[in-house]
Specification:
alpha+beta, 283 residues
Length: 283
């Protein structure tokens, strides 16, 4: 309404908690302790739309390095949709990331709208759901990431993401209630994965490995950290056929799909070694 005051500003920690709650209501199943990790990536990269002081819209526009950004958490409270508030915060978010290549994981039926803003489809991601439990494989080389120098983990991770994400990674692998496991071969880190508690069950992400065999070892070790009564989820780039085969081998079923899109060139990522996306919200 014309007499209402709408403003957009950087979220407070409490407002980020609220946005995560909205994401839960949308069925996105956020992690229980994601907020600190998200804010560590870019404290200014989370915007809230306030209507007469009431939070009604959100967007995350996280800057990585000097040339990349990732967009997520684009939510408008249902009763305020279709009134232009979402478009305003969308434009504010894109302005914050001006001059950068921007990525997002959007729901498939919104691809047309994202294309109008200059996003191009790179590939799809599939969220798989399965049951936890089982036994960790009895193989040499599985290590708790907390036993490794962080610099080794960070150096390994950098080839899997378009820009440096050191601060985010520091928090992500140490989230409360999570488990972070690596696998070594010939004295070198050859993969790692994280499982964290979510509103429903657990999510594995990322799951990175030099080959399908190592990915399966990590997958089983992480899966064993959840109870057999727990649901767990793995977000897979569908272009990685070995990752799809891994999910299907363990009777996981697809429950959700996203479209990975970018505004500029597609980053040259080793998708054949990415068996699980870190998080749809931050890439």
């Amino acid at each position: 309404m014309a007499d209402k005051q709408y403003c957009i500003q950087v979220m407070t920690p409490e407002q980020l908690d609220l946005a995560i709650e909205w994401a839960a209501q949308e069925g996105w199943n956020p992690g229980l302790h994601d907020a600190d990790s998200f804010r560590s990536a870019d404290p200014n990269g989370f915007l809230v739309g306030l209507l007469d002081g009431e939070p009604i819209a959100s967007i995350s526009v996280v800057k990585y390095g000097d040339s990349f950004g990732f967009l997520g958490f684009y939510i408008v409270k249902p009763e305020y949709r279709g009134q232009g508030y979402g478009l305003q915060i969308w434009k504010a978010g894109l302005e914050y990331l001006a001059g950068r290549n921007i990525g997002l994981d959007g729901v498939e039926d919104q691809q047309g709208n994202y294309k109008k803003s200059g996003f191009k489809l790179a590939y799809g991601n599939i969220r798989y759901e399965g049951q936890g439990g089982g036994n960790a494989p009895a193989v040499e080389g599985l290590v708790d990431l907390s036993d490794l120098p962080f610099e080794r983990i960070d150096a390994y991770d950098q080839s899997f993401f378009p820009a440096e994400r050191t601060e985010f990674l520091k928090h992500w692998i140490k989230q409360e209630g999570s488990y972070a496991i690596g696998v070594e071969r010939d004295g070198q880190l050859a993969g790692y994965g994280v499982i964290r508690p979510c509103r429903s069950g657990y999510k594995v992400g990322p799951l990175l490995a030099e080959n399908a065999e190592l990915a399966e070892e990590l997958f089983l070790a992480l899966k064993a950290k959840a109870k057999s009564s727990d649901l767990f989820y793995l977000d897979v780039p569908e272009v990685n056929k070995n990752a799809v085969a891994l999910a299907e081998k363990y009777a996981m079923t697809p429950v959700f799909k996203t479209a990975r899109m970018y505004t500029r060139e597609f980053p040259d990522l080793p998708l054949d070694r990415i068996f699980g996306v870190t998080t749809f919200e931050l890439g």
